[in-house]
UniProtKB/TrEMBL annotation:
This is Protein root UVB sensitive 5. Pfam families: UVB_sens_C, UVB_sens_prot. Residues 335-464 form the Root UVB sensitive protein C-terminal domain. Belongs to the RUS1 family. It comes from the Eukaryota. Residues 1-43 are annotated as: Disordered. InterPro entries: RUS_fam (IPR006968), UVB_sens_C (IPR055412), UVB_sens_RUS_dom (IPR054549). It comes from Miscanthus lutarioriparius.
Length: 482
């Protein structure tokens, strides 16, 4: 067990403390131990559980002051950790190479297939290296009859460039695999933007031939990262197209379209390269590439804009609740997708909402356990707790933390409440009556919101609002002694 910090201490994760200014608008609740009665006994209020097994307990010390206790347990959050507790492979590697929720999130034959697929791909890339050397010899770099050192060296440099670039795909697939189901349109667009940046490095190689390997490697790295974004995003898009379960046929026909475009593009590119201006002037070549690339990005954006998803992600969920809070209507999926901004990041949307924040950040420097009591009682019927922080004249940032039983519907309810609070700005010093009013509005209006969603053609089973993995609030018995 870790040592207990002193009362009023700050909980650090990763060496960085939360530093927040106290809220001037927060009226201090009356102390429950006042009135001259006997002081209350120390009691646990709640606990926050993290994926690494750390549990942070919030304890009232009997004088309405908070104490924090950190404990280290075996993490129960992910069932894989229990199954692989005795494995020689670190848990971080399991999380990197296997889908979240494995094995329950995939079919029973997934792991066996991947274990056989891996050496299959290894042998394929060995053949690729050998064939690359032969191709370079065929175009005059070395020969089979004379010295082959030049061809071998060139082949090593060429495949090294590919190998460095492959790290980009490895990073994206292992670290960011959970992103693509939520917003495939955004990540498919960013894939093309990153790929364009990679092409700039490759375009610079004639200017600096001595730096061919680093420039080409950077270009390949960026293009590999782009492919890491592109492939999973487009698979989600293909799955969206296959409404009849005909994913294989949709993918095959997409290949027909893509190969046809490839042949036409290669032919047009050869014709452009054969023109006198492009052959003789690097500047003309660069400007031609820039013009075509900008046209390519514009066309990509237009193609993604026509997609009409029926799933409810965070962006579309915001559009739905904002419309219902403001106008008591819910747009259909066509209008909602047309309003959705492809390139906008969540942090730039209004109101600003932070999900999965520690309770200590919500307290904002308030050391009173009464504050925690009031929040727990206020949200006793919800699977989340929502508060806010506000600095000066800036708009408030709504903070949401989730209980262990939270679901996608809990995230949607917190979105609705945050948008109601944003629309009905605080006009008084008392914060808790304002929050109580928002919860009453949520209770009265959310049922109508769901009914209108159904009428507008949305399916509640297609809500993909993910609950943050940590911290998880575990409520304690308020009358239990420490």
């Amino acid at each position: 067990m870790l040592s207990t910090p002193a009362a009023g201490g700050r909980f650090r994760r990763g060496g960085l403390p939360w530093r927040l200014r106290p809220r001037s608008c927060l009226a201090s609740p009356p102390s429950s131990s006042g009135g001259g009665g006997e002081p209350e006994k120390a009691r646990p209020l709640l606990a926050e559980r993290y994926r690494d097994g750390v549990v942070k307990r919030y304890i009232s010390d009997g004088n309405s002051k908070l104490q924090f206790r950190l404990e280290k347990h075996e993490s129960p959050v992910n069932a894989v950790e229990d199954e692989n507790a005795d494995s020689l492979i670190p848990q971080a590697i399991w999380d990197f190479v296997l889908p979240a929720g494995f094995p329950g999130s995939v079919s029973v034959d997934y792991l066996e297939y991947m274990l056989l697929q891996f050496p299959t791909n290894v042998t394929g890339w060995i053949c690729h290296v050998l064939v690359t050397s032969s191709l370079l010899k065929a175009v005059g770099v070395g020969s089979f009859t004379g010295t082959s050192a030049a061809a071998s060296a060139a082949a090593i440099r060429w495949v090294s460039k590919d190998g460095i670039g492959a790290f980009g795909r490895l990073l994206i697939g292992g670290r960011f695999g959970a992103l693509f189901d939520d917003d495939p349109k955004k990540w498919r667009m960013y894939a093309d933007i990153i790929g364009s940046a990679g092409s700039i490095f490759e375009l610079m190689t004639p200017l600096y031939p001595g730096y061919f390997l680093p420039l080409a490697s950077l270009g390949n790295l960026a293009k590999a990262i782009a492919r890491g974004f592109k492939d999973p995003s487009f698979r989600v898009i293909q799955n969206h197209f296959a409404e009849s379960g005909n994913l294989g046929e949709v993918a095959a026909k997409e290949e027909v379209w893509e190969v046809g475009a490839q042949l036409l593009g290669l032919s047009t590119g050869v014709l452009i390269m054969d023109t006198a201006g492009v052959k003789s002037s690097y500047l003309t070549l660069a400007l031609t590439w820039l013009s075509v690339r900008l046209l390519h990005l514009w066309l990509r954006y237009q193609s993604l804009s026509v997609l009409k998803f029926r799933t409810i992600n965070l962006k579309r969920g915001r559009i739905l609740v904002r419309s219902h809070v403001a106008q008591h209507t819910v747009p259909g999926y066509v209008a909602c997708n047309e309003e959705e901004s492809i390139l906008t990041w969540e942090r730039f949307l209004r109101p600003q909402i932070s999900f999965g924040v520690p309770m200590e950040r919500m307290l904002g420097g308030d050391e009173s356990s009464d504050m925690v009591d009031r929040l727990l009682k206020l949200y006793k019927n919800e699977r989340y707790i929502l508060f806010f922080e506000q600095f000066g004249s800036r708009e408030p940032t709504f903070l949401v933390t989730f209980k262990e039983s939270a679901t996608s519907m809990s995230v949607l309810r917190s979105l609705w409440q945050a948008h109601w609070l944003h629309k009905n700005q605080l006009r008084q010093e008392e914060v808790f009556p304002w929050l109580e009013e928002s919860l009453v509005a949520l209770e009265n209006g959310f049922t109508d919101f769901l009914e209108q969603m159904c009428s507008a053609g949305w399916d509640q089973n297609l809500i993909i609002l993910k609950v943050p993995k940590e911290p998880v609030l575990v409520l304690e018995h308020l009358d239990q002694e420490v």
